[in-house]
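Please, structure for the following, as tokens.
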Amino acid sequence: MSQLGGMPILILREGSEQTKGNDARARNILAIQAVAEAVKSTLGPRGMDKMLVDSLGDITVTNDGATILENLDVEHPGAKMAVAISKTQDTNVGDGTTSSVIIAGQLLTVSNELMNQGIHPSIVARGYSLAGKKAREILKNEIAVSIDPDKDHETLKKIAITTMNSKGISGNKDFFSDLAVDAFSKVKSEKDNMAKVKNITIVKKKGKSIRDSEIIDGMILEKEPTHQMMPKLVNDAKNCFNISSIRD
């Protein structure tokens, strides 16, 4: 943007377009619908894989919505919003990325039909807000089932297996579901039985099979020894040193 005689001048690239009002809204909705259609065929137990080829020629085959959307080269602001929905869902929940984008696309499709009938967008948004509140009430009071994390390990394992069906480790989901339930039991709070996921750190190491993964009930320090004579394993570390003498 530059100034000419006190009046701002906006300089755009060749081929740029400026849209406002209903036209801009319709284009944004259309872009989100296009993103939703791109991942729609990957949803469900019979979902198909997508082959993605990036600018360097690297090939990725996956049916994970978050991976597909992350590798999509999108420029439209509306499409970027759909990708942001997927990333937010993946960060906060870790699953349901494809479903969240598809639901968003369908809600916008219906809202566009309502607005074409003369209903104001704020009324449509208010209606969706009320519907979301009602849906949460139904989920909590009628559909949700309470379980005891200390006893219902099989239920927790089934939940973990379901979330892994669309991941790259789906072939080893039984093995990793046991690890996930074990990790959950180690970091869950005794007050509300909620897991503090931030207390779980995933450390990746090359050279072995993924089935060699294990849970370390403690702390891992990735630090090279300062001297080659330093011990690599210390037993009974709490009592190895006289803390009082060190303080003195």
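The radius of gyration is 26 Å. The chain has two domains: 17-143, 146-241.
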